[in-house]
Amino acid sequence: MGKTILITAGGTSEPIDRVRSITNTGTGKLGSLIAEAFSRYDQTERIIYLHGKNAVLPVCDKCIMKEIASTDDLLSAVQEICTQYPVDVVIHSMAVSDYRVRSVLRASTVLAICQPSGGLENVFYFVDRENMLKKQNKLSSDMENPVVFLEKTPKVLPVFRELLPEAVIVGFKLLDGVSHDELMQTAFALLQKNHCDYVLANDYRTVEAGAHEGFLIDSSGVEVAYAGKESIAAGIAEMIMKRGNKDA
């Protein structure tokens, strides 16, 4: 039986109201190249490509495309896919939002709540997030000085190991303007914390400059360097399909 590869790519989008959202710069380009790289192996039976709305899509006959929006959507889709398919490999390259909108209030309302309580903590819990999104179709463009309160999103990476104890899992870590040592230490800590087999570490400076550099680190701390998105994609696929399988 061939392998099933699950790839997440692009960026999530967290709603402010029914027509506005907060998103990030994730394009899904690297994820699409990784999908195409895996598709060239005969061992690959199917690739499930879980992507954000505007993500680059791979040209791939073996790909099953599934679009998601928010982090909650992503978690639901991951749980559904991992139940439906025998996933062998996970490439979690999606730029998942670290924060989502808890509430949006007028500045005058925030001040009114703060004055008797003496702090912002009560304001944070003033509006229930789920009820806000259900009741609020669209924030009025006449609202003066809106204040947006954010809360952390649930982490997705550790869910893969919980659902797929035998799969090969590749996480991604993007930092900006740090030393190589700090980048690799942070990536290795992510690998250990989330029980990944590999983590692809990259610095946004090289991405922005159009000369994407990636460093694939394994559970023993060994790193392999790649230059360019095509090289990173091919390297990840080769590492897993030829040497990175848990039984090797």
Structure description:
The protein is an alpha/beta fold and 248 residues long. The chain folds into two domains: 3-97 and 154-243, CoaB-like (Rossmann fold, 3-Layer(aba) Sandwich), CATH 3.40.50.10300; 99-152, no CATH class. It contains nine helices and twelve strands. The strands form three sheets. The protein has an eight-stranded mixed β-sheet with strand order 5-4-1-6-9-10-11-12, sandwiched between helices. It has a two-stranded antiparallel ribbon with strand order 2-3. Strand 11 and strand 12 (223-227) form a beta hairpin. Helix 1 (29-39) packs across helix 9. The radius of gyration is 20 Å and the shape is globular.
Order of strands in the sheet with the most strands?
Answer: 5-4-1-6-9-10-11-12
Beta-strand percent range: 25-35%
Name of the CATH homologous superfamily of the largest domain: CoaB-like
| Helix run count | 9
Main sheet makeup = 8 strands, mixed
- CATH level 1 name of the largest domain: Alpha Beta
Would you give the CATH topology of the largest domain?
Answer: Rossmann fold
Into how many domains do the coordinates divide?
Answer: 2
> What's the overall geometry?
globular
Whole-number radius of gyration? 20 Å
Number of strands: 12
Secondary structure class reads: alpha/beta
Gap between N and C termini: 17 Å
Helices and strands, in N-to-C order?
EEEHEEHEEHHHEHEHEHEEH
Share of helical residues: 25-40%
Low-pLDDT stretches are 244-248
